[in-house]
Design brief:
disordered N terminus; Peptidase_M1; Immunoglobulin-like; binds zinc ion; alpha+beta; Zincin-like; 42% helix; Neutral Protease, domain 2; 980 residues; eight-stranded mixed β-sheet
Length: 980
């Protein structure tokens, strides 16, 4: 029966539609129902026909979704998802045993906006749909394309040959947007076959998941029919209507095409080559063929994220697919990884899909991790596993510091919750956990288990237990693993990782008297959580870091004391032990001081004996212990740092840079700071020269590019004169000659580092020169912003005072920045530039009568009050009192109160530093006095007259000519928070 809803204009929102319906009918009273589809009915197949005049720029489209529905259990309703679809007309026919169809009378439909449910039900409430029966549900509707990439959306571009605007329509269905395109069972568990038919302008072409089956031309229109898909989830349904062109290549029976706007066609060559190699490599690695005949990759102006893995039709944002002309190695490698991530999804997600979004990590974790593994196999020279450490693992190790933490497997239900599950945990933490077991279960065995799991669940859906059982089955077939006590407990092992929120720390305590080692675990968080943790060992006697399978699992909630003999380890008292080779395990390791000292001796003697990833891991593991002042023996960290002058690998440098920065900030204002800087200069000079002076341009690897910025910051913030010359030259080139280091806007942030470091020690003449340039500049230009933003980094007190006056002074305030922004700069400057702190107090003391007229003064004053060191609290109290009295007398800022002097907030942000200084400063000072060789020459250099550009200094002649190249290569991502 038909319930025509004609009369609704195309744009009427479904909310209105639903209200109208429930008001008129009332047969289905409003009730709170689950947002999940009921299980009584399921789709056997879809025939979807979409007609669009997008070639004319028309955003209206009409659809016919005909769904064959089977009834599992007798029910009074067929429930589908639909959202923002209008003019809905529904006809339901029962398919009889003879195959004929009979229209089912007396059906109506209701809309539930909260669940986005289109509910087909009889007018009277009875079980109209009987178990075992089949129905054909035909739904006609119209809808409007969106401009945002959700559902069916549109974009345009100007065809340069004709100078006309061309329109493109494309889809984004994941995770819950297929319902915006057509009514459907929009949950990944309801897989079905889709026959898609598209009617479009004759000069446009259509592509979809499957190859074209036939095309019919009628007048100005063409109807393209595609082959029927294998069973697949709705979130993978995709099509694009465009006038794009393509290049293609066929290998092993799979045709791959790169689609782009006609003028960009040739830019797809490297993406095509990569795609062909990667699909073949995935087939070989997992032993499962790519199941479709073709795979398209299309470059779109607008895409949801960088790319979307639709089966057989991957959509990309243009810049992530087409070869860029920047010659930027790093970006090219990143784009390759993005493409390979989407290709990996063709198996992980498309062939086998998650039963429900709670297992989104089974898509994203596998695609993320294996994109790196496959890329590494194909292009070992790119060293992408190092990139995995810096781009994925680093974030996963620190995610808990800035994200809401949840387990990898978490139940979600609303659309919003489903969207939110695509986060750092689903991608990066899951990738790290998968990597851990890829290694712990030996790579070959893990991959074989995965292959069998893919074979078993292909064209179907799976949950995590299905996956774990296949891994266990594979382990049981292996001679070695079969004998392990844990081998029957793979579910428990894996669940301890997918259902925990935080991360374990493994405590390794050696007893040197009786040759035993005690292993225990605790969470990085106070929450009580326990894991099954795979361990393996490298020792001074057996420094083999290559074999990464698990030697031992430590069980939840237990302490294991094992003798060296039981562990099969050769170790003497002075030898070192390292746990978690190549840091394939996703956890921190804490050692006792004696073991750390043994490691420090090895690092100084011959650091290359320890794998570079483990050298980095040592510092990654120490960092939180230093930051939380947990270590009793801070000297051992310095013993370990000492070898860094010999460290040529950037992975350890990246970790060490953070710790150095932390220590430097905490030592600010103490007698140890200059000694510490001298120590750091000593460590960083060789690396700085290698990257920025000798410029190992050709052989700077990918990871080098990531860490180059850290080296620059470490060197310049420790006042290394060469670094100061280098950045000052670049800064002056930019400021006075407006020589851009690069034109790419994405590197805008990089200016910030260079400019900030470059203006730290300007002479008066230079400083006022910069001010002059700034005042002459166009105030709406980026150049102007750059200058005003970089000057915050100056270390000169008189320049800082001048700068403050410029921002906040009587005559300048509103000329420079709008008021709240100026005041924000005050607290920003305070936090970012340690040298500015005393100057700011001085400035406030001098100018509070003016400052407190600003409505945002109190807020910013209260913020910086949190950074008052305890010894300055009395002065702070007096100043605060004077300001409060003045404000009261002047009746200013009645709404907001100055921070209370007894408030726990005053000085709160300094507490950690104070604990650090109390506990460590004396020890660090003594260590530095004993260990740091005097470097008197450098001190002179710091205060020498700054070198001007090209004045015959001893820098290589080519430095400035090639600066842009070096900087582009070396400085990638900026983290403004470094100046926090
Ligand atoms: Zn993905």
């Amino acid at each position: 029966m038909i319930t025509p809803l004609s009369g609704f204009a195309g744009l009427v929102l479904v909310v209105a539609l639903a209200l109208a319906l429930s008001g008129v009918d009332g047969s289905l009273p409003t009730r709170d129902r689950s947002l999940r589809l009921p299980n009584e009915t399921y789709p056997l197949g879809y025939e979807l026909h979409i007609s669009s005049n997008i070639h004319l720029g028309s955003l209206l489209f009409s659809g016919n979704a005909t769904i064959d529905v089977a009834i599992r259990q007798s029910t009074n309703e067929i429930v589908l998802h639909a959202k923002n679809l209008s003019d809905i007309q529904i006809t339901v026919r029962q398919v009889t045993y003879s195959g004929s169809m009979e229209v089912v009378d007396d059906l109506i439909h209701t809309y539930n906006p909260q669940a986005a449910f289109l509910i087909i039900h009889p007018r009277e409430n009875y079980q109209a749909f009987e178990a075992g029966q089949r129905y054909r549900v035909e739904i006609l509707y119209t809808a409007i394309m969106r401009s945002r990439p959700m559902g069916l959306y549109w974009m345009d571009y100007v065809d340069e040959s004709t100078n006309r605007t061309a329109y493109v329509a494309a889809t984004q269905s994941e995770p819950t947007y297929a319902r915006l395109i057509f009514p459907c069972y929009d949950e990944p568990g309801f897989k079905s076959n889709f026959s898609i038919r598209l009617t479009h302008g004759i000069n446009h072409s259509a592509i979809s998941n499957m190859p074209v089956k036939e095309m019919q031309h009628h007048g100005e229109l063409t109807t393209t029919l595609f082959e029927t898909t294998p069973p697949m989830s709705t979130y993978l349904v995709a099509f694009v209507i465009s006038d794009f062109e393509h290049i293609s290549e066929t290998y092993r029976g799979v045709t791959q095409r790169i689609y782009s706007s006609p003028r960009s066609k040739e830019k797809g060559q490297s993406a095509l080559k990569n795609a062909v190699r990667t699909v073949a490599a995935m087939e070989d690695y997992f032993g499962v063929s790519y199941p479709l005949q073709k795979l398209d990759h299309i470059a779109l102006k607008k895409n949801y994220g960088a790319a979307m893995e639709n089966w057989g039709l991957i959509t990309f944002k243009e810049g992530n697919l087409l070869q860029q002309d920047t010659g930027d190695v790093h970006k090219r490698v990143k784009d390759k990884i993005t493409q390979n991530h989407e290709i990996a999804h063709q198996w992980f997600g498309n062939l086998v899909s998650p039963e429900w979004w709670s297992y989104a990590w089974m898509n994203e974790g596998f695609a993320t991790y294996f994109a790196y593994v496959i890329t590494d196999l194909l292009y070992p020279e790119d060293k992408v596993m190092d990139m995995f450490v810096s781009d994925e693992a680093d974030r996963a190790y620190s995610y808990n510091s800035f994200f809401e933490v949840r387990p990898m497997t978490s139940y979600v239900e609303t659309e919003k919750e489903i969207m939110a599950i695509f986060d750092i945990i689903t991608y990066k933490r899951a990738a790290c956990v998968i990597k851990m077991f890829h290694h712990a279960f030996r790579q070959k065995i893990f991959v074989r288990g995965i292959s069998r799991y893919l074979e078993k669940y292909k064209y179907s859906v799976a949950n995590e237990l299905n996956l774990f059982d296949y891994l266990q089955a594979e382990l049981l077939e292996d001679e070695y693993f079969r004998q392990q006590p844990w081998v029957h407990r793979v579910r428990e092992i894996m669940l301890s990782w997918t259902h925990s929120e935080w991360m374990p720390i493994v405590l390794v305590t050696r007893n040197y008297e009786n040759d035993t080692i005690t292993f225990s675990q605790r969470s990085i968080h106070s929450k009580s959580e326990h894991w099954w943790i795979p361990l393996n060992f490298a020792t001074a006697q057996e420094p083999c870091f290559e074999d990464t399978q698990a030697d031992l699992f430590i069980l939840p909630q237990t302490q294991h004391s094992l003798t060296l003999a039981e562990l099969n380890l050769q170790l003497t008292g002075r030898d070192w032990l390292i746990v978690n080779k190549q840091q394939t395990g996703f956890y921190h390791v804490h050692y006792d001081s004696d073991n750390l000292r043994a490691i420090a001796r090895q690092l100084q003697h011959n650091h290359s004996l320890i794998h570079p990833v483990n050298r980095a891991a040592l510092f990654r593991d120490l960092k939180p212990q230093v930051e939380h002042t947990e270590l009793e023996d801070i000297e051992v960290v310095f013993d370990m740092l000492k070898y860094m002058e010999l460290e040529e690998d950037l992975l350890p440098w990246k970790q060490v840079a953070d710790t150095i920065d932390f220590v430097r900030r905490n030592l600010f204002g103490t007698a140890s700071l200059e000694l510490f800087n001298e120590f750091v200069r000593h460590l960083v000079t060789p690396m700085f020269r290698r990257l920025f002076r000798d410029k190992a341009s050709g052989d700077v690897s990918n990871s080098a590019l990531e860490a180059g910025q850290e080296i620059l910051l470490t060197a310049c913030l420790a006042d290394l004169p060469e670094c100061q010359d280098y950045t000052r030259s670049l800064a002056k080139e930019y400021i006075f000659k407006k020589v851009n280091v690069t034109n790419e806007s994405e590197y805008y942030a990089m200016y910030d580092t260079i400019l900030c470091l470059g203006v730290r020690y300007l002479s008066d003449k230079e400083f006022y020169g910069v001010i002059g340039m700034m005042q002459a500049a166009d105030r709406s230009s980026i150049y102007y912003d750059d200058l005003i933003y970089s000057l915050r980094c100056t270390q000169s007190h008189s320049h800082l005072l001048y700068y403050l006056d410029l921002l906040l002074g009587e005559n300048s305030t509103h000329q420079i920045l709008s008021d709240p922004e100026s005041m924000m700069y005050l607290s920003y400057l305070y936090k970012s530039n340690m040298e500015a702190r005393s100057v700011i107090w001085q400035y406030i003391d001098r100018s509070y009568k003016l400052l407190c007229r600003s409505p945002s003064f109190v807020e910013n004053f209260n913020q910086i009050a949190e950074f008052v060191p305890r010894q300055q609290t009395p002065q702070f109290a007096m100043l605060r009192q004077r300001i409060a009295r003045y404000m009261e007398a002047q009746s200013l800022n009645a709404g907001e109160a100055l921070i209370d002097i007894d408030s726990g907030l005053v000085g709160k942000k300094m507490k950690n530093t104070e604990v650090f200084v109390d506990k460590y400063e004396h020890k660090i000072h003594n260590w530095l006095i004993a260990e740091v060789p005097p470097m008197s020459v450098q001190n002179e250099a710091i205060h020498s007259e700054p070198l001007s550009v090209g004045n015959g200094s001893n820098r290589p002649q080519s430095l400035l000519n090639t600066a842009s190249e070096v900087v582009q290569k070396a400085l990638r991502s900026i983290d403004r928070s470094l100046y926090r």
